[in-house]
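About this split. The held-out portion is used to measure sequence recovery: a designer receives only the structure tokens and must propose an amino acid at every position. Recovery is the fraction of positions where the proposal matches the reference. Here is one held-out target exactly as it appears in the evaluation file.
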């Protein structure tokens, strides 16, 4: 019975973690270019169960019933699960829907690639192209971090520029004068190699080789979150039911322990 308590408890912990992941997806349903997460669970190594009585005695009548014989081995009952745990949190990097804004410095990436920004923790990567021109003329993101060009340098937009055009390859021209080229990068291993850091930023794995991405930049457009609110709500309901089933199993096991200690034990 103790084993049953622990098994059900691990299920509750797993579903609680999954609830946190789903809640975070729902909270970021309107976050530009947010990529939803999935909690992947795994089962602990199951235990192969035998009949204890047959381990110390020879075959009994039941083991030779109608010619059935176990050759003096213990009858196998089957496998007993020992619970589950969250193995990893996996990010779904599928493309989000595009939303037209018409803003000059709103950029979306069609296909693979990440923008490069300079943060206090070093260079980081993002698909959030909600950029704007700061007071000093620098191209920055919503957190005020400099957006970098293909050589890792800040991008300056000339003052009093009337027409800024950003091409699909990232080339920026101000009043038809070339200014810079926005950096668009990817790494060996693809999106799966990128590690979420928070604030819509990613960092690259240590030692990974950076290369130019083959995605296209769309001006005046933002990539929306790839979170499907309806699907996440369905997952949340299913998750709640699984959590509830495990909690009822804990209560049942506790009741059985109470009876075995306070009633069966007293009768002996």
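Reference sequence for scoring:
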């Amino acid at each position: 019975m103790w084993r049953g308590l622990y098994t059900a408890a691990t299920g509750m912990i797993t579903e609680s973690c999954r609830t946190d992941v789903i809640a975070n997806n729902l909270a970021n349903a309107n976050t530009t270019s947010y990529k939803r997460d999935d909690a992947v669970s795994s089962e602990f190594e199951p235990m192969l169960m035998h009949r204890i009585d047959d381990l110390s005695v020879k075959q009994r009548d039941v083991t030779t019933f109608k010619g059935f014989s176990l050759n003096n081995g213990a009858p196998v009952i089957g496998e007993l699960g020992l619970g589950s745990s969250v193995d990893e949190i996996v990010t779904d990097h599928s493309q989000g829907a595009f939303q037209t804004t018409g803003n000059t410095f709103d950029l979306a990436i069609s296909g693979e690639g990440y923008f490069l920004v300079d943060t206090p923790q070093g260079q980081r990567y993002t698909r959030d192209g909600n950029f704007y021109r700061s007071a000093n003329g620098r191209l920055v993101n919503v957190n005020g971090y400099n957006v970098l060009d293909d050589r890792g340098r800040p991008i300056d937009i000339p003052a009093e520029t009337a027409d800024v055009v950003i091409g699909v390859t990232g080339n920026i021209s101000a009043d038809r004068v070339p200014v810079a080229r926005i950096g668009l990068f990817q790494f060996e291993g693809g999106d799966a190699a990128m590690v979420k850091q928070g604030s819509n930023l990613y960092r690259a794995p240590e030692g990974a080789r950076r290369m130019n991405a083959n995605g296209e930049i769309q001006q005046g457009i933002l990539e929306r979150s790839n979170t499907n609110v309806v699907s996440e709500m369905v997952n949340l309901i299913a998750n709640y039911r699984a959590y509830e089933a495990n909690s009822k199993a804990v209560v049942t096991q506790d009741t059985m322990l109470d009876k075995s200690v306070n009633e069966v034990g007293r009768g002996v």
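Annotator remark: The chain has a mean pLDDT of 85.
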